[in-house]
Amino acid sequence: MTPAADKGIIDKPSNHSVEQTVDRLKNILQSKGVTLFALIDHSGEAEKVGMKMLPTKLLIFGNPKAGTPLMLAAPRSAIDLPLKILIWEDAQGKVWVTYNSPIYLQQRHSLPAELLQNIAVVETLATKAAE
User: Is-above-0.70 flag for pTM?
Assistant: First the structure.
């Protein structure tokens, strides 16, 4: 599998392992007062049922002060909230940080331009975790 280059999905290469990138993101979220709602270990769950999968983890996080105005403006945006970052390793051993483009989410849900900043933080978080 190779990173997607379209359809509203952004892939950034990470300079760290999946585990290190996850830890970096968790620390960044904590330092910013952002709630980590869930960490889903897809590869760990696969292993529990006897299947092999390269390291793949999904972090679901947010801040009600930022997300609630989005959902009030466009209730169906709740399908894409809280925000998510996927951290995964490809077949060549490269680690990727993947997330939905804030512009894509804005367009998908016809969100007002002034609320874009509420979800644009995902780009900064992904970049900091990967560097």
Answer: yes
Structure tokens at 115: 């609320």
What single-letter DSSP state applies at residue 5? -
Tell me which residue of 89, 102, 92, 96 sits closest to 127, measured CA to CA.
96
pLDDT digits (tens, 9 = 90+) for 59-87: 999 999 999 999 999 999 999 999 999 99
Check if the beta carbon of residue 96 is closer than 8 Å to that of residue 72: no
- Residues in the chain predicted with pLDDT less than 50, given as ranges, are 1-3
Taking a C-beta distance cutoff of 8 angstroms, is the pair 9, 101 a contact?
A: yes
Task: Provide the H-helix boundaries in the chain.
Answer: 18-31, 42-48, 64-73, 102-109, 116-130
Q: Which sign does the torsion angle of CA 57, 115, 103, 122 carry?
A: negative
How many residues in the chain?
131
Q: Cα separation of 55 and 116, whole Å?
A: 31
DSSP-derived 3-state class of residue 125: helix
**End-to-end CA separation in angstroms for the chain:** 22
